[in-house]
Each structure stands twice: as structure tokens, then as C-alpha cells.
């Protein structure tokens, strides 16, 4: 059984809103269910989200919160009384931000980015000191790896994201081709590049042309799959070339020259066409 996560459990004893839950491994656990929830049937087995509040009291719910332990989330401040801050995380029992985990003053009704975690006693809390929970350098991922991302904010260069709830990453502006992106969105993406300093460039779409090592063959493969037409020429912007084919403009022009010399393509001001 893991606190701050979803667990399968059997209901062994029911006393009002207090349950005794049994698990396939480990000891039974006495928990309270929020007052607004219907108690499951005695003897039944179900999935529960189980957590401890900061007083050490164990809770269980059949609902799924907006975030679990080890995850990031944009959450709204319900109440702020001095050092006590309560968050709306989708359950009737609020989530607490301890004073030592507050980066700046948190204002009532405002939304902030939080990291959700258990302390060494298994008690669940939220922290707005997110920089302390995200690593800037990554050594375990490689180019083209599929990852889970959490969109944090827009910057001049692009959109800052958290990768696999662990690392910072960046989607550059020239890799953004959809308007359906917003703060707090979780979705799949791909590692575009792991920089020498371990920082991650992220792309929303896997570039299938990247797996073709020869630039000439890469351009031919693209043309063949796109009805013999490519809206890139030797005059195109380097960023546009890289976004489509993942090669530099210099390498692109060299490959175009080879194809043109071999009479395999036709060049115009607007596009490149495959000759058949």
C-alpha cells in the first residue's frame, strides 16, 4: 500500500464513515472517508486513493484527486489564514501547504503551480517551492524517447515544461504547431535533443525523418510520402527546415544540390518537387 496514491483494498469493517481496509500485502488500515461520500459495501473490494493529512490521520476516497504524490498540478488556494494555506485538489478535504513549503505569499482564490509529495512520515503535502523538486540536467533520456510532459508557462523562447515529473524541458516556438496548449496541460511528447549540459529540448511530434541518417534519402522519403512536393527550398528559413527534417540549412542545401544534379528534383521559389 502506498500513501498518496491509488490502492486496491477490501472493506473489512464499517463504522459510520470509518473503514478498516485490508490489502494483499501489509497490515490492515483504519481510515476515514470524507462525509460527502457513500460508503462501499462491507466485504467488497475497490480502488481507493489513500493519504495521510498533516496531523497523521489516514483518509480514503473513491474519487481521484487533481494530483497524486510525486506529481505537479495547478491548484487554487481555497483559504489562507496566516501560515495555513488550504488548496482545492478536487476532494472535500483540502490539501495543506506547510509554511516552510511556501515560496511566496499565496493569495486566496489564486492559482499556483505545486508539487505534491509525502514527508518521511507518509503525510501528504503540497509545495510551491517547485524549483527544488525539478532537475535541470537529465542523463537517462535519449533523443526520440516518448515522455510525459506538464506545461508550466510560456517564455520568449517557447513553452517551459516538466518532463516525467522530474526534469525541466523546453518546447521551442518553431516546434509549436497547435493552439491547443495551455498551462497545466498533461500530454505525451518526445525528446528532440539532449544538450551537452543535460538540458532537454522537447517536441510534440516524433520526427520520423530523423531516423534516416542520410540527408539525401531523408528528403526523398519526405517527398515520396507527401505526393512529391515539399514546401521547402534553398531559400527557406533554417528554423523551418529543422522543424520538418531535423537537419541544418547547410546540410539541406548540400543534399538539394546532389538531388538537383542527379535530376531527381525540380526547384522553384515556392517549393521542391520530385521528378518522376
Summary?
With 276 residues, this protein is mainly beta.
Task: Please describe the structure with a list of short key phrases separated by commas or semicolons.
elongated, 5-stranded antiparallel beta sheet, single chain, 276 residues, OB fold (Dihydrolipoamide Acetyltransferase, E2P), mainly beta, 4 domains
Distance, first to last CA? 64 Å
The total beta strand count reads 18
In the predicted model, the low-confidence regions spanning at least 5 consecutive residues are none
Biggest sheet overview: 5 strands, antiparallel
What's the CATH class of the largest domain, please? Mainly Alpha
- Proportion of β residues? 35-45%
Q: What does the overall shape look like?
A: elongated
What does this entry look like structurally?
12% of the residues lie in helices and 38% in strands. With 276 residues, it is mainly β. The strands form 4 sheets. It has a 5-stranded antiparallel β-sheet, with no helix packed on it. A 5-stranded antiparallel β-sheet has the order 8-7-6-9-10, with no helix packed on it. β4 and β5 form a beta hairpin. The protein is elongated, with a radius of gyration of 26 Å.
How are the elements arranged and paired?
Blueprint: E1 5-15, E2 18-22, E3 29-32, E4 45-52, E5 58-61, E6 72-81, E7 84-88, E8 95-97, E9 111-118, E10 124-127, E11 146-154, E12 158-163, E13 167-172, E14 186-194, E15 200-203, H1 215-225, E16 229-230, H2 238-245, H3 249-261, E17 265-267, E18 272-274
Parallel strand pairs: 13-15
Antiparallel strand pairs: 1-2, 1-4, 2-3, 4-5, 6-7, 6-9, 7-8, 9-10, 11-12, 11-14, 12-13, 14-15, 16-18, 17-18
